[in-house]
Write a structure and sequence with these properties.
- This protein has 398 residues and is of the alpha/beta class.
- The protein folds into two domains: 100 residues, no CATH class; 284 residues, Alpha-Beta Barrel (TIM Barrel).
- It has twelve helices and twelve strands.
- A hairpin with a 2-residue loop joins strand 4 and strand 5.
- Bound molecules: iron/sulfur cluster (SF4).
């Protein structure tokens, strides 16, 4: 491995560690940052990922490492990693020791300063996930909560209850989405995901079709590179309709591979969607309709044993499904608030193994980019390092 790749993997390890542990900082330090002007502020969408709520105080979405990896800024006052502001500059430190100075935070896209024709800020409609990716949560609550069947790690309803009044969290209509996506795409963004919690009666299907129509109308694009993130439908023929509606990819998140743990952690997904077996059947069917590498699932990593997660990723890959993993960060307002995720090294090892499975099964960088809602996971970074896709590879002297 080249020296540059070794250095990048060291930075990636640090990114995973700070992602799992979070960052300790005094929220007041961001008065030194042009948040909401030059730099992109965090806007709450589906889930509060910080370890505690911070109503009325904005944080940056993230910053860059010296070699160009994107780090998130997940707040956790108990973390040994800190973001500090000293001598006119931000720094990342570990137990008081400097790791690196931060030269650049993530810039705010221009469309965040625009409004839809009904006067809604586009920043509330289409979240900028960086690297050309836009994320839209059409609804910010989940009907499973009313049945007492919401997923134990999930805080979607608590997030809405906490931030709705302060950050204007509300349902988005297709026209708003079409206008915001068109503005975002005019700036060079090129992939989007539509997602949300369960709605009563599973009425999301018509909504997804109307949204696809609106996006096509406002962008003028037939293929707008969209992912429809949906629960497993009881009637699998519905999946064909998502393809006909114009979505390039589809995502159905199984969350837990072990059948019994799935039942306990995701009672609504078990009881409303025909159970774990049907969930897997839906993913296999989606791969037949959308094609190899055009279907994504996600596992919340750290709730079940690593071996079980890896078996799931292997099995899904053998069926053409990209089985992503994301580190479980026990969230405020979820039933598992106060629990702990495995050690950061556990997660880093898992990411490397999952990237290995993806590559062995022939998934390309473009496929994982198109299928996932966030473009800066550790798995994306492993591809960028191995395939030398980062700008730093243009400057070999780095
Ligand atoms: S289905 Fe589960 S993970 Fe998805 S929003 Fe509802 S409770 Fe959360």
């Amino acid at each position: 491995m080249s020296k540059l790749k070794e250095k990048l993997y060291k930075e990636l390890e640090l990114k995973v560690f700070t992602g799992v542990e979070g960052l300790n900082f005094d929220p007041h330090i961001f008065k030194h940052l042009d948040l909401g002007g030059k730099y992109q502020e965090e806007i709450h969408c589906l889930f509060e990922m910080d370890s505690e709520s911070h109503v009325g105080t904005h944080f940056p979405v993230g910053f860059y490492s010296p070699l160009g990896l994107t780090f998130g800024a997940r707040w956790n006052r108990k973390s040994p990693y800190s973001l500090v502001y000293e001598n006119g500059k931000f720094h990342l430190t570990h137990k008081g020791q400097e790791l690196f100075p931060i030269d650049e935070f993530i810039k705010r896209p221009n469309y965040y300063g625009l409004k839809t024709s009904d006067g809604t800020p586009m920043s509330n409609i289409a979240l900028h996930a960086t690297e050309g990716v836009v994320f839209i949560a059409y609804s910010n609550d989940c009907a499973l909560k009313d049945k007492g069947q919401d997923c134990k790690y999930c805080n979607i309803n608590a997030t809405k209850d906490t931030y709705a009044d302060h950050e204007g969290i509300a349902w988005k209509n297709p026209k708003q989405i079409g206008e915001a996506v068109a503005a975002a795409y005019r700036e060079g963004n090129r992939h989007l995901t539509i997602s949300g919690g369960f709605v009563p009666e599973r009425r999301e299907i018509e909504y997804y079709f109307d949204v696809a129509d609106a996006i096509r109308e406002h962008t003028g694009l037939d293929d707008f590179n969209g992912t429809a993130c949906v629960g497993a439908p009881l009637d699998l023929s519905v999946i064909d309709k998502y393809k006909e509606a114009g979505y390039r990819t589809i995502a159905t998140n199984i969350e837990i591979w072990d059948k019994n743990i799935f039942k306990a952690i995701c009672p609504g997904k078990e009881q409303q969607c025909g159970g774990w077996d049907h969930w897997v059947k839906a993913l296999e069917y989606e791969a037949q309709v959308f094609g190899q590498g055009r279907v994504r699932s996600n596992i919340v990593a750290g709730i079940e044993p690593k071996q079980s997660t890896l078996e799931g990723v292997e099995y899904l890959a053998s069926k053409g499904v990209i089985g992503f993993v994301t580190s479980w960060c026990p969230n405020p307002g979820s039933d598992l608030e106060g629990h702990r995720s495995p050690e950061p090294a556990w997660h880093f090892d898992l990411f490397k193994k999952v990237a290995g499975i993806f590559r062995k099964n022939g998934f390309t960088y473009n496929q994982i980019y198109d299928a996932y809602a966030a473009p800066n996971t550790a798995i994306h970074d492993i591809y960028r390092i191995e395939d030398e896709l980062l700008p730093v590879f243009q400057n070999k002297a780095a």
